[in-house]
Amino acid sequence: MRSAIPKDVKMSLKVMVNKEKTKVPFAEANSKSAEVILSFLMLPLGEIVRVFEEHYLDKKPVVGSLTPMYRHLTTLRSDYFWTDGGKNMLLNPSNSFMSGPVKHFRCGDMDCKKKSFRNVSIYYDSGTCDCGKPLNRAMGEIEPKPQAGGDGILVEGLHFLVTDDLQLAPYEPGSMMETLVYLGIVVTEGAEQLNVTLGYNEIVDLLKRSLLSKTPLTDVILCVINKNMGYVLEDILLDKIELESTSSKRMTVTALMQKSTNKLLFVKGREDFVDFILSFLTIPLGGVVSLLRGKTCFKGIDNLYKSTSNLIKDKHFITGDAKRRLQEPQLPPYYVSKNQIFSLSEQIVNSIYYYESITDSSDQTIGKGSWMRYKDPKGDQGCYVKPGMFKISDDLTFLKCFFSNSAILSKLKIPPSDVKEMEVQIGLKEGLSILKAALRSTTALADGLVKHITKASVASNSAQSDGLHNKTSNKRPKTKVSP
């Protein structure tokens, strides 16, 4: 199962550089190179953070609150989770593009007592057999259902233009200028065309810059061309965009706000909310753009996603399914938690019939077959986190909460009189707001929830005011009786 950028990946481009060597307005790419860029949409958020953590030894890039949450997750004890497999799925999330045979694993006990519908998993050591032993014994590989056209995304032999802000557009030979005009690209006098090959390091840099910059192509190409010039990259955060959504699924958390500063101190919630925010790590980048309706804070990624609809036509994709998997990617089997608020789908796996030949003590070969049932690596509960009350910080890190609010406030040296508690309902609108804030900010809860907390506070104060008014109006005036 492909879940990361291959180490041997190569991308060949013909780049156009302006005369001053300060801008790359566009580049030409073939189908394979264009596929590498499109593959960014298939990467789960947690996988992106993991790649950055492993690749950049110094000055590791921070992706909003996702990086703090991911780092915190690596330090958590296993008893926070129903299974070690569930924690591993969050730390090493896979994407849903299946390539090649899929390995299967069964109970590690050769004498497993479960005789009918034995358990099987497609994740090594990430599940537990009903007998209690780990599912870590390899049992062979199964070829996935072949995709029409193979494992690729785009038809081979096509030509694409890649703009500085990651618009990706096919063009026919002889129509390049027409396509450039359509994209609004102006080539200044004296521009020079150069052949550039990007390897793994540069492609990871391109991914990073696509999350941080309005000009990712220029940032990376000029670093390749001018390695000795010390080209400086400038981080850019884009403006906020409001979202409107409705939902029926909701969960309740308690937000503690400091009155004097109007600052969110922390949130207390149960395992369903913690399970929900952890699930951000499993969502592919293309799925995030889809959920946020093409309005994330990543302009280059938004442009790349829109290109799959507005610029790249159906005829350019190997299949319609390849296009759909970029625009509305499914999660791998068992990744969607029962506490998920977002409308996400996952691949379905069915029971399998496994047949094997066994040689007994008398060297006789005996054929043996049985039906096997896939096991949820998260556990039978269908979620990642065990029950409990949790204190969730602004950067989406969390710990089990064993103390009262007054004890926590005492430690923070904040008087209870300076704190107000608000119950906040978390539905789709609030969940999307937190997700979007988590992409760009290390204070995702404050940025994502304060507006909703303020509304809840106003509604609460209004209700209290109405109640007080009703009590006052219901009082009968005293009548003075004259003697």
Overall structural class, as computed from helix and strand content, comes to: alpha+beta
Rg computed from alpha carbons, rounded to a whole number of angstroms: 27 Å
The 3D shape can be described as flat
The first-to-last residue Cα distance is: 96 Å
How many alpha or pi helices? 14
Helix content: 25-40%
Extended strand count: 15
What is the multimeric organization of the chains shown?
A: single chain
How would you write the strand order of the largest sheet?
7-6-2-1-8
Q: How confident is the prediction overall: mean pLDDT?
A: 84
Write the element-wise H/E pattern from the N-terminal end onward.
Answer: EEHHHHEEEEEHEHHEEHHHHEEEEHEHH
Question: Major sheet, described briefly?
Answer: 5 strands, antiparallel
Would you identify the regions where 5 or more consecutive residues have pLDDT less than 50? 228-247, 476-483
- Beta-strand portion reads 15-25%
Walkthrough of the structure:
The chain is α+β, with helices and mostly antiparallel strands and about 475 residues long. Helix content is about 30%, strand content about 20%. It has 14 helices and 15 strands. The chain has helices at about 30-40, 45-55, 65-75, 85-90, 175-185, 200-210, 215-225, 270-280, 285-290, 300-310, 320-325, 405-410, 430-440, 445-475, and strands at about 10-15, 25-30, 100-105, 120, 135-140, 160-165, 170, 190-200, 250-260, 265-270, 350-360, 365-375, 390, 400, 420-425. The strands form three sheets. A five-stranded antiparallel beta sheet has the order 7-6-2-1-8, with helices on both faces. Strand 6 and strand 7 form a beta hairpin. Helix 6 runs antiparallel to helix 7 (about 215-225) and helix 13 runs antiparallel to helix 14. The longest helix is centred in the last third of the chain and has 31 residues, at about 445-475. The N and C termini lie far apart (about 95 Å). Mean pLDDT is about 85; it is low at about 230-245 and about 475-483.
